[in-house]
Structures are given as structure tokens and as C-alpha cells.
Amino acid sequence: MKRTRIKICGITRTSDALDAISLGVDALGFVFVKKSARCVTSDQCERIISQLPPFVQTVGLFMDATEEFVSTILQEVPLDLLQFHGAESPGYCEIWQKNYLKAIPMGNGNNPTEFVKKYTSASGFLMDSHMPGQLGGSGDVFDWSSIPVSFTEKPLILAGGLTAENVSEAIKQVKPYAVDVSSGVESKKGIKSIDKMRAFVEGVKIADEKK
After folding, report:
1. Which of 50, 82, 175, 204 has an alpha carbon within 20 to 30 A of 68's alpha carbon?
2. pLDDT tens across 79-106, in order?
């Protein structure tokens, strides 16, 4: 059985991070975008990461940040993977010589194959329901049928309005490498619910068992 990986984004508390890991989540996302309600400081993020066990991937989310800002964060926080949500160029994404994901805004009918052609160095692509220039985490779902059947050989991470109620169907339709959830497992912005996270993980397992 091919297992769908799970990333929970918008982590702001150590307790939420540890709860997610205890449920079998593969990766945790930390938002470094000041206008986001889920934004964390480098000190806050470093404290959370210092409490994590081995083999948990940490992902830093940025959007049109200055090179100086990203460099400062990377000097202070041990991030494994970068995730870019803005209009960053391929050259910009490659500066730090780290694996990165490029988010594709599916909120306005963008052609995702154009991103694949442009960001050839990306380790994978994250499809979210946001519009260009906006951040994810809105809780909105985009039309999954708009994803080309043979989208890319690189990992596809599906995001955008995923919840315990719809994640099984999302996996059935899209067959992504991983699913990414933020608002769908929250009690309020930036605060995760262990019950919602547990139900989400169970929804993924149910879908995987049917493959």
C-alpha cells in the first residue's frame, strides 16, 4: 500500500507539534509571513523544533520575502525544507541550496503545467486554493478535476480546504504524494485541535487502505 504523507501547517505551539507527531504526521509547517495569523518568530520556531523527536521534517513557508529575511531565519532555525508561496523566481528559490516546494495558486484557473516547466529545480509542487499574491490557509477548496491527470513526475502536495470530512475523497480523486492541512484541523487560527488532527489522519488512512 502506497502511503499518503501528511503535513500540518501553521504550527505555533509545541504542544500542537507534539500532538501531531504522536498521530503519525510526517511534516510540520511554520509560517514566516508577517501578515498571517499563524506567523511565528525565529525564536518561537526554534523552541518548538528543539522539542521534536528525530525523523520529523520541518518546513518553512515564505512569501515574497527579502533574501536577507530568509537568510536570517535559516541562520537561526534548523529548517529541512523551504516552501515558497509568492512570485519568487526559480533563481531566488535556489539561492539557499535547500530542497524547496513551489506553491501553485489554483484560485484563478492557473495552468499548473506552466509552473512545472518554470521551476524545474523544485522538489515538489503544492497546489492550494489561494489566488496569486495571497497566502494559503483560507479553508477554501479548489476544483480537483482541474489538475491534469499526468501533472508531473515530481511529488504533488494537495492543500486548500482539506478536512477530515473530505480528505479521503481528495486522495481518491487526486492521488497526491501528500496532503497539507492548516485551518481544517484548528479550533481557532493558529491553534490546532488534537481531535480534528486525529480525525484527519484517520481519513487519510481510510483512503490509503482503499488503494
Report:
1. 50
2. 999 999 999 999 999 999 999 999 998 8
- Look up 45 and say whether it is catalytic: no
Residue entry with cell 523552541? 47
Domains with residue ranges and CATH for the chain:
5-193 (3.20.20.70)
pLDDT in tens, 45-78: 999 999 999 999 999 999 999 999 999 999 999 9
The CB-based long-range contact list for 164-170 (8 Å cut-off, 24+ gap) reads 164/196, 164/199, 164/200, 164/202, 164/203, 165/203, 166/141, 167/200, 167/203, 167/204, 167/207, 168/203, 168/204, 168/206, 168/207, 168/210, 169/207, 170/144, 170/207
Set 9, 39, 45, 93: catalytic member: 9
Of 16, 19, 128, 180, the catalytic one is 128
